[in-house]
Write a structure and sequence with these properties.
59% helix; Helix Hairpins; 16% strand; rod-shaped; Glucose Permease (Domain IIA); two-stranded antiparallel ribbon; ten-stranded antiparallel beta sheet; alpha+beta; 417 residues
Length: 417
């Protein structure tokens, strides 16, 4: 190799070994450049396909979420309509029960009146027969005396006969009136018995509708709590032990004051009231457990519960515009409202049954520590504080201090709320 400058010329001699080494080095660089370029092109093409697939999956997921949201709203409307029908039926059965009790009282009064009338009628018949017997004896005595015209006893006997005849006529008239009253009372009793039978048929229909309505209302709630991993019996016992409500429609019915066994209708009504009590306890428990969604506006899911980028993601992420209202998913007490490491602005709420919810990356807080909140209360606004790559809500549910999938509760409530 010759190296020429303005003043002189130099040369460098490369041995075959050096030339071979330089050739292989240049070839290796060129081969590396070709392979790296191919890898970059393939990765670019693959990532483009992956992004397209991810977008398609996201659109499908959002479409499914919209369908679930519409179905949830429809089920909520159906539940509200069923509740209204249930309240109307309950009012109707209360009215019918009152009428039934009044009818029963009237029937007993009529039975007592009929019994009094029958006793009076029997006494009157006896008195009539006695008067007839006395009249016959008196007439026989007069015949034996052989009274003739002009005898002084004739006027006395005639007066006595007139008195007896009048008394017998009055007795017969009274008897006929009593007989008519008794017949009328029997007709009224038959009519009342027919009305009572009709009322019993109506009560049977009402009881059947109420029993069906209670079954339809209680079974989805029972299924919801089981789907959330909660034991319904333990749950109801916990709520009942902390609930001081008394009286009202949940008090067992008792229509007998003679120590008799309750009737079949009373037992059915008490079973319905037991189901109503269970439904009421479920309603209280549903308010205290996080079955609601923390965002009422439109949103999209961006990340679920589970492993993510080699680390455990302990909650579910919801994306929406900055400042979107965030709501409490159940009744509870605020235990933290402030900044916490990677969570940013964070709200913690302690609920019943050892459950805690967390709402992270908020831009603004609307609650303070120690404040009691109800389900649906606004507790903050969506933001991007803390360790966050974009505006979203990080929502966690913890049971006994251990994180669980929030979607377990949200999905369990899809068929109820």
């Amino acid at each position: 190799m010759f190296l020429k400058s303005d003043s002189d010329t130099r040369f460098i001699r490369l041995r075959p070994h050096s030339q071979l080494l330089a050739f292989f080095g240049a070839s290796a660089i060129v081969a590396w450049a070709i392979i790296a370029t191919a890898i970059l092109l393939m990765d670019s093409i693959g990532s483009g396909n992956f992004r397209e697939q991810a977008k398609r999956d996201q659109r499908t997921y959002e479409h499914r979420l919209n369908e679930l949201s519409d179905e949830r709203d429809m089920r909520a409307d159906e539940a509200l309509a069923a509740q209204e029908r249930f309240n109307s039926a309950l009012h109707q059965i209360s009215v019918m029960q009152t009428e039934l009790l009044a009818s029963e009282t009237r029937r007993r009064e009529l039975e007592t009146g009929i019994e009094v009338i029958q006793k009076t009628l029997r006494r009157t018949v006896k008195e009539r027969d006695k008067a007839r017997y006395e009249a016959l004896e008196l007439a026989s005595a007069l015949d034996d005396q052989g009274g003739a015209p002009g005898n002084g006893n004739d006027s006395s006997a005639d007066g006595m006969l007139d008195f007896l005849t009048t008394a017998l006529a009055d007795t017969a008239s009274e008897r006929d009136q009593i007989s008519n009253d008794a017949q009328q009372a029997l007709l009224e009793a038959d009519e009342m018995a027919l009305r009572i039978e009709l009322m019993r048929d109506q009560n049977e229909q009402i009881f059947s509708q109420l029993e069906e309505a209670m079954t339809i209302s209680v079974e989805p709630l029972d299924k919801m709590f089981r789907a959330a991993g909660m034991n319904p019996k333990t749950l109801l016992d916990t709520v009942r032990s902390g609930y001081s409500g008394q009286g009202g429609p949940l008090t067992p019915l008792s229509f007998s004051t003679r120590g008799q066994e309750p009737s079949g209708d009373t037992m059915r009504a008490n079973r319905i009231l037991d189901q109503m009590d269970t439904l009421n306890l479920y309603r209280i428990a549903a308010q205290k457990a996080p079955f609601a969604i923390p965002i009422k506006n439109s949103f999209r899911y961006t990340s679920g519960f589970g492993m993510r980028w080699g680390r455990m993601h302990n909650g579910t992420d919801f994306a929406a515009p900055h400042g979107t209202p965030i709501h409490s998913t159940a009744d509870g007490v605020v235990t933290h409202a402030g900044w916490l490491s990677g969570y940013g602005h964070l709200v913690k709420i302690r609920h019943e049954f050892g459950i805690e919810t967390r709402y992270a990356h908020l831009s603004k807080l609307h609650v303070k520590v120690g404040q009691r909140v109800s389900r649906g209360d606004r507790i903050g606004d969506m933001g991007n504080t803390g360790r966050s790559t974009g505006t979203h809500l990080h929502y966690e549910v913890r049971v006994g201090g251990k994180p669980v999938n929030p979607m377990t509760y949200i999905k369990a409530a899809n068929d109820v709320f």
